[in-house]
Amino acid sequence: MTRTRKSLAVAFLLPALVLLGALVVYPIGYSLVRSFYDKAGDSFIGFANYGELFTDSNILTAIKNNAIWLVAAPAVATALGLIFAVLTERIRWGTAFKLLIFMPMAISMLASGIIFRLVYEQDPDRGIANAITVGVHDTFSKSSAFPKAHPGPRSPLKPEEGGFITKGTVSVGEPVTLPLVGVAPDTMPDDAKRAASAKTDPGKVTGTAWQDFTIGGGGRPDTVDPKELGYPGIRIEAVKDGKVVASTKAAADGTFALPKSADGAQLRYPAANFRAPYNGVDWLGPNLVTPAIIGSYIWMWAGFAMVLIAAGLAGVPRELLEAARVDGANEWQVFRRVTVPLLAPVLGVVLVTLMINVLKIFDLVFVIAPGSVKDDANVLALELYTSAFTDKDSGVASAIAIFLLLLVIPVMLLNVRRLRREARR
């Protein structure tokens, strides 16, 4: 129609075609050829490198993890983006909320990986994820203050089922001493007071539970000394014939009293007194490392999905939504039967874009996964890097690259087909 000569069009397109050939076509062709050669690139070995893709355990783990990424990450990020886009239309500060959700997109993958490596730290004092987890856990289930406490060499106590029990029985009117050691002075409870010797009570079994250790030395074993601290809140049980007949907790100075029913029983520190403090979830352990990294990816890309879906939502005719409400549909029905179908093209764009993106995920896995679980979090792009630059096996690396290309092509064709279908409407 413009009567433009084909040669002139080719001349204008030539620079782009040269760049496309040099940066895309040639690397793909070279990788394809290189994938049929051995590690050194000297001998033709046919499809041996491709056979290794389905026999090597590390590569199989990478394929499995890529499948998990492909199913979980785009779907969750798109769903969250849809929810955020719909909800921000109904709140006063919707623009500010969108900005807050979209901000992680301004951060590089490398920086996000470093952030989440710290977020997932096992130590609750450093990792916010475990700080929250430990805080919630300790709200409902208090951890023991004496996890390392144990009897001394001449103690009247002996081990039993994770706790400790007296070697002999106790009697009413005779104070009992239950000394322990092993708790560092700086980890003693804040409410611990100087230990006191229990008073004699003719109607009760009394005693003292305390830290039989004097800071700076001195003191006598199995004797309550002036500078020693009691074990506040430690539980003591009276056991007869394997059954608990009475129980109590020690006061701040370590003293306790049991009723007359404890006469002739053995006194026991139950194992719950020495339970190790809850240290949170092993987010970067072999079982959770992949879901944890996917969580960091969703944190970054949910904002991207939200912005695109919000743009599509702005073009939805409001009269259709109002008509549905007038016809008696509730908000959930309007969302499910009107809003989502009208947003289907946008949702398709977001979903396909994220699917292509996660197939080549590398940065987050490389940065977040510790060396001990690198193999458990492995993905194809990371395995390609490892094969090429650590193992120096360009043959296998080229085969992985071609395999990744073959995985991406169907998704790209699906996207092209969808775009053409939209153009015909």
Automatic annotation (TrEMBL):
Membrane association type: Multi-pass membrane protein
Keyword Cell membrane attached: yes
Matching SUPFAM superfamilies: MalF N-terminal region-like (SSF160964), MetI-like (SSF161098)
UniProt cross-references to Pfam families, sorted A to Z: BPD_transp_1
Keywords tagged on the record: Cell membrane, Membrane, Transmembrane, Transmembrane helix, Transport
The keyword Ligase belongs to this UniProt entry's keyword annotation: no
Listed Gene3D superfamilies: MetI-like
Domain ABC transmembrane type-1: from-to ranges: 63-415
Positions of transmembrane segments: 67-87, 99-120, 297-317, 338-359, 396-416
Region named Disordered: 191-224
Any one Gene Ontology cellular component term annotated for this protein: plasma membrane
Annotated GO biological process: transmembrane transport
Subcellular location: Cell membrane
Family recorded in the similarity comment: Belongs to the binding-protein-dependent transport system permease family.
Name of the featured protein: ABC transporter permease
Organism of this sequence: Streptomyces tsukubensis
